[in-house]
From TrEMBL:
Signal peptide: none annotated. Keywords: Aminopeptidase, Glycoprotein, Hydrolase, Membrane, Metal-binding, Metalloprotease, Protease, Signal-anchor, Transmembrane, Transmembrane helix, Zinc. PANTHER family: LEUCYL-CYSTINYL AMINOPEPTIDASE, PROTEASE M1 ZINC METALLOPROTEASE. The chain crosses the membrane at residues 121-141. Its cofactor is Zn(2+). Residues 399-614 form the Peptidase M1 membrane alanine aminopeptidase domain. The active site is at 471 (proton acceptor). InterPro entries: Aminopeptidase_N-like_N (IPR045357), Aminopeptidase_N-like_N_sf (IPR042097), ERAP1-like_C_dom (IPR024571), M1_APN-typ (IPR034016), Peptidase_M1 (IPR001930), Peptidase_M1_aminopeptidases (IPR050344), Peptidase_M1_dom (IPR014782), Peptidase_M4/M1_CTD_sf (IPR027268). The record marks 555 as: Transition state stabilizer. It is found in: Endomembrane system. One of its GO terms (molecular function) is peptide binding. This is Leucyl/cystinyl aminopeptidase. The lineage of its organism: Eukaryota, Metazoa, Chordata, Craniata, Vertebrata.
Length: 1027
């Protein structure tokens, strides 16, 4: 899935949550659970009480123990305190009715024995008392085994009540592994007038080992009839039990179902079409004649297939599907597979039947749509590629078709494995929260992620091509080979993100996605530098934690690590390893280790050893360089931003350090490699080397400090000639310098001294990086109302970039890189009231109006021109009118951002309300509106108040943990830097309790405010002195 361009915007779900308190420390608590059981992949399941075992993939948690020792200490604390906090609830969930003889039983953390504390002693004494009592019980109850007694007594205590009052026969969030679905026959009858649907689901299953229950998922479905058939026996009615907090249903049997038996469960049900953006949801659009039509579409990832049909809704339960959908004659339907036939029903409705899926697939990839779309198509090596949209927007689909066709061919070759299905549909849905979703054969998109006008700018094309490239990569990474459980989500998302940049760089170099990728890596470093970050692979045990996995670490850090790995392997080895992985696991589920093993097999060097240090520890290293003539010492430590004296972990990374020096610094052949595995290492250089630049083209996920001498040598070199380094290396120096300033390792004077060279800079990446860093500081000063400093900072920025600003043209520009540079520069300039910029923007807008909007504003300048126009009362109203009537969504979004950047408080309030109510402005745009409004001084306090007042409505539309909520919190709080705001934010989120207080993004927000506060306190005197 592609979360969207700038802000993470994803699907919304309204999950019924477990009654347990969701506590952040649950994460670490579960770290101690023993595992290393690969149930997901093995077809043979362990024989010992297997029904008690959930479908748990092998994870790498044991390996965590070898790393980050300091963190373990904290986790042990957490483990104990959380056990106290959660009491019996915790017992129920994790271990209560697992027999003590089972290898899957929770064991005490080994370290607690070596350091007996008072608490441990108490526990030991209690344990002895219990053992003594149990012995006595056993003595008086001959015939019972110890295990049996425990299991029975615990089980009955642990099982929750179903909705009908009977005990529900399962206690875990994850489904039991005893039954496996093989095939689903789905019939859906949506009624777009009443916004309801009925369904008929036939699930064929096999028994993996003896059991007396079938447990599967179902949410918000009203099951009206259920029948069950064993092997060739007669179907009979059965009672379905439901346990809503975990969205599970179950059928209990008196006789044991035996391993190897074949079962068929048939369920009839009815439900409402969802009014949010997940499950089987309804949406509508109005055409240019004002005629409104309704449609229904699906969004299942990660946990919403269960809202459309009862199913085993975990990625490792792959099965085949046959879908049938009824419709009225004015509509068409789409599903993953091509349509097989259409029959007329007695009711007069038509029933479309799709081919049975030729591949096994996970439930989250199933999709269907009922709408009145039109399409254009093209054949690409035996695959029919089509792009669908509402009829009015058909002319905007051409770029997508051309791009998808070219990329499909690229991936067919690159993966050395042809796309698995006979057709591939790309569909633009009018109401869609995520950027796009990779449903197999039926990729759904937000309209702005798929449709581009004939006069679109390169930047719009860049966005659309990126999303298509991402979703197409998923057809292999994610669909063909799928992670076993959401803890390895990066295997899907990190990979698709990496492939998106790699494929575009090769197939569409004119779109200049390299700079986009570089900026993404800088963003990933910023997130991962916080203490609230997490390892790429992390334990996932609750529904909210599943949602939270769709974050910067899975996508952006995942992609960055893959780039680093590829850059450190010679030739085509990375690609060969990937081909081997896809060949070996085609149609199956995997864990991260499987990928490393395939690469190791091809590369003949242990990839796994290196990658573990990047996957299982949060954060990344800071490398400090110190040089004594020919001897260079590199030391590594955890780059952790802290506002207090939080001790850094002693984590070490296995770093493929690359470097170039003044004798050869531009071509790839200049690059030298040094592997740093220990805390420090030395390398030799000729004495006459003047300077050294590490992390060639910034392909490594680390930051470098060159020391005073090293920085000075680099700055001197740049001041003489900026072309001694690649533009990525120059951007990397700027990025690293600002990061070190946040860490307190360099002074702000050193930052300014590096930026002196920037007057001569003309390349996009270094300019946009410097601008974005300076703008961040400017906004912090602005929000603190440090008026004197705000003015000086503004003057500094405009002065540094003045000649470059004045060099920019205002006509059509073809190069994507130049469009990016121009829009970034001019947007900053106009927002800082640069007279030349404001004047030109105003003039362009005037010409646009006078030509009755026939004289186009270049796409990359539209947002800026509309924003300047919307500053005046008259202009704002004009832009609002244009917004209401515009049909081209990319343009519409820019008008919306212009409207949201107003400093008029009445209008700010109006727009916040409009987007929340979905009137005039679609609710899917809420994260974008919030981030735009928060940027302005007037707006940032309003959004903060608005969030507090409307929290319940917000989490109704975007569930706790979702990316939309993450984005809203981040954009609203990230510019606070005072104690008063810190107290407010802390107070508000603490008061939410189960309504969001435990989200990781809350910790991140609090940490960011503390860091801002600390950085401001430290640097305000320096600003006064040096700006
Ligand atoms: Zn994705």
């Amino acid at each position: 899935r592609e979360p969207g361009s700038k802000v993470y915007q994803q699907e919304t779900r309204s999950l019924k949550r477990a009654n347990l308190p969701r506590n952040m420390i649950e994460n670490s608590m579960f770290e101690e659970e023993p595992d290393v059981v690969d149930l997901a992949k093995d077809s043979t399941f362990p024989a010992l009480d297997p029904d008690e075992v959930v479908y748990e993939p092998r994870s790498s948690r044991l390996l965590v123990r070898g790393l980050g020792e300091n963190e373990l200490d904290e986790e042990e604390e957490d483990y104990e305190s959380s056990a106290r906090l959660l009491g019996m609830s915790f017992m129920n969930r994790s271990s209560a009715h697992r027999p003590s003889s089972s290898p899957y039983t929770r064991q005490a953390p080994p370290r607690s024995c070596s350091r007996p504390s008072a608490r441990t002693m108490v526990v030991c004494v209690l344990f002895l008392v219990i053992v003594a009592s149990m012995t006595m019980v056993l003595y008086f109850l001959p015939g019972c085994t110890f295990t049996r007694v425990r299991q029975i007594s615990n089980s009955s205590a642990a099982y929750p009540n179903s909705t009908n009052g009977e005990l529900f026969p399962w206690t875990e969030l994850r489904l039991p592994a005893s039954i496996r679905p093989l095939h689903y026959d789905l019939t859906l009858n949506p009624d777009l007038k009443t916004m309801t649907f009925t369904g008929h689901t036939v699930i064929s299953m096999s028994v993996q080992h003896n059991t007396k229950r079938i447990v599967l998922h179902s949410a918000e479905l009203n099951i009206t009839k259920a029948t069950f058939q064993l092997d060739d026996g007669k179907p009979s009615d059965v009672t379905v039990l439901e346990y809503k907090p975990r969205q599970q249903i179950a059928v209990k049997f008196t006789e044991e179902l035996k391993a190897g038996q074949h079962l068929v469960l048939t369920l009839d049900y009815s439900a409402n079409l969802s009014h949010n953006y997940d499950g089987f949801y309804n949406s509508s659009h109005t055409d240019k004649n004002g005629v409104k039509s309704v449609l229904a579409a699906t969004q299942f990832e990660p946990l919403a297939a269960r809202k459309a049909f009862p199913c085993f809704d975990e990625p490792a339960f792959k099965a085949t599907f046959l879908v049938k959908i009824s419709r009225e004659s004015g509509y068409m339907t789409l599903s993953n597979m091509p349509k097989a036939k259409t029959t007329e029903l007695p009711s007069g409705l038509l029933l479309d039947e799709f081919e049975k899926s030729s591949v096994n697939m996970s439930t989250y990839l199933v999709a269907f749509i009922v709408a009145n779309f039109t399409s254009i198509s093209e054949n690409v090596s035996d695959t029919l590629v089509s792009v669908y949209s509402v009829p009015d927007k058909k002319e905007h689909t051409r770029f997508a078709l051309k791009t998808a066709s070219k990329l499909l061919q690229f991936y067919n070759n690159f993966f050395d494995k042809t796309y698995s299905l006979k057709k591939l549909d790309l569909v633009a849905i009018p109401d869609f929260l995520a950027g796009a979703m990779e449903n197999w054969g039926l990729i759904t998109f937000r309209e702005t992620s798929l449709l581009v006008g004939n006069n679109s700018s390169r930047l719009e094309q860049q966005l659309v091509a990126s999303v298509i490239a991402h979703e197409l990569a998923h057809q292999w990474f994610g669909n063909l080979v799928t992670m076993s459980w959401w803890n390895d989500l990066w295997l899907n998302e990190g990979f698709a993100t990496y492939m998106q940049y790699m494929s575009l760089q090769r197939e569409f170099p004119e779109l200049d996605t390299d700079n986009l990728f570089l900026a993404m890596r800088f963003r990933a470093l910023a997130k991962d530098a916080l203490n609230s970050s997490h390892p790429v692979i992390v334990k996932v045990d609750t529904a909210e934690q599943v949602l939270e996995m769709f974050d910067s670490v899975s996508y952006e850090k995942g992609a960055s690590i893959l780039l680093m790995l590829n850059a450190s392997l010679p030739g085509e080895q990375f690609r060969k390893g990937i081909i081997e992985y896809l060949r070996k696991f085609s149609g199956l589920n995997t864990v991260t280790e499987d990928l490393w093993n395939s690469l190791t097999q091809v590369c003949h060097q242990s990839v796994s050893e290196m990658m573990k240090s990047w996957m299982l520890q949060k954060g990344f290293p800071l490398i400090t360089v110190s040089r004594s003539k020919g001897q260079v010492t590199l030391t590594q430590e955890h780059f952790l931003l802290t506002a207090d004296n939080t001790t850094r972990s002693s984590s070490l990374w296995h770093i493929p350090v690359t470097y170039v020096n003044d004798s050869c610094s531009l071509e790839p052949e200049c690059k030298q490699l040094f592997t740093l595995k220990t805390a420090s290492g030395t390398l030799k250089l000729p004495d006459n080397v003047k300077w050294l630049k590490l992390n060639y083209r910034n392909t490594g996920f680390y930051i470098v400090h060159y020391g005073d001498e090293g920085w000075k040598a680099l700055i001197d070199a740049l001041n003489q000639n900026i072309s001694v380094l690649t533009h990525e290396d120059r951007a990397s120096l700027i990025h690293n310098m600002f990061a070190l300033s946040r860490l307190g390792r360099v002074t702000f004077r050193q930052v300014l001294s590096l930026l002196n060279y920037i007057s001569n800079e003309t390349d996009t990446a270094p300019v946009t990086e410097a601008l974005s860093q300076l703008t961040t500081i400017y906004k912090l000063l602005d929000k603190r109302q440090e008026l004197g400093l705000v003015a000086r900072m503004k003057a500094y920025i405009l002065n540094r970039f003045d000649s470059l600003i004045c060099k920019q043209t205002w006509g059509e520009e073809l190069s994507a890189s130049k469009q990016k540079l121009r829009s970034a520069l001019l947007e900053s300039a106009c927002s800082l009231d640069h007279p030349y910029c404001v004047q030109n923007a105003t003039e362009l807008y005037k010409q646009y109006l006078e030509s009755n909007r026939t004289k186009q504003i270049p796409g990359d300048l539209q947002r800026l021109v509309f924003t300047v126009a919307a500053r005046s009362d008259e202009g704002w109203v004009q832009v609002l009118q244009m917004y209401a009537h515009a049909t081209y969504d990319a343009e519409k979004r820019k008008m919306l951002q212009a409207l949201a950047s107003t400093q008029d408080t009445r209008r700010i309030v109006w727009i916040l309300k409009a987007v929340l109510n979905g009137e005039t402005v679609q609710t899917q745009e809420l994260p974008l509106v919030f981030s735009t409004v928060s940027n302005g001084f007037a707006g940032h306090l309003f959004t903060w108040n608005f969030i507090q007042e409307n929290w319940n409505r917000l989490i109704e539309k975007f569930p706790v943990g979702s990316s939309a909520i993450q984005s809203i919190i981040t954009s609203t709080t990230s510019q606070f830097s005072t104690q008063a705001h810190l107290d407010q934010v802390q107070g508000f989120f603490t008061s939410l309790k189960e309504r969001g207080s435990q989200m990781r993004v809350v910790q991140e927000a609090l940490e960011t405010i503390r860091l801002n506060q600390c950085w401001m306190d430290r640097n305000l005197p320096a600003f006064r002195q040096w700006l």
